[in-house]
Design goal:
Radius of gyration: 12 Å
Helix content: 40-55%
Order of helices and strands: HHH
Strand content: under 5%
Number of domains: 1
Distance between the termini: 11 Å
Length: 68
């Protein structure tokens, strides 16, 4: 099994997670405040309705941090 460097991977993080940990994982990866990521998802949800589907796809596709 190959070693995967968690600092280079996208993942869901249960630390500070509200629903699935997607926003928390993205904020850790890109070193942005989690509140900004959540606001962007809410804007995408109400603006284009794509925020919901993007979140669901990322929730399914991204592994949890401890699975890496």
């Amino acid at each position: 099994m190959a070693y995967r460097d968690p600092s280079n991977s996208l993942y869901r993080s249960k630390d500070g997670a509200v629903i699935g940990g997607v926003c928390s994982g993205l904020s850790e990866k890109f070193k942005i405040d989690v509140t900004i990521i959540r606001i962007l998802f809410v804007i995408a949800l109400f603006g284009v309705s794509a925020g919901f589907w993007i979140y669901v796809i990322l929730w399914i596709a991204l592994p949890e941090k401890n699975e890496l």
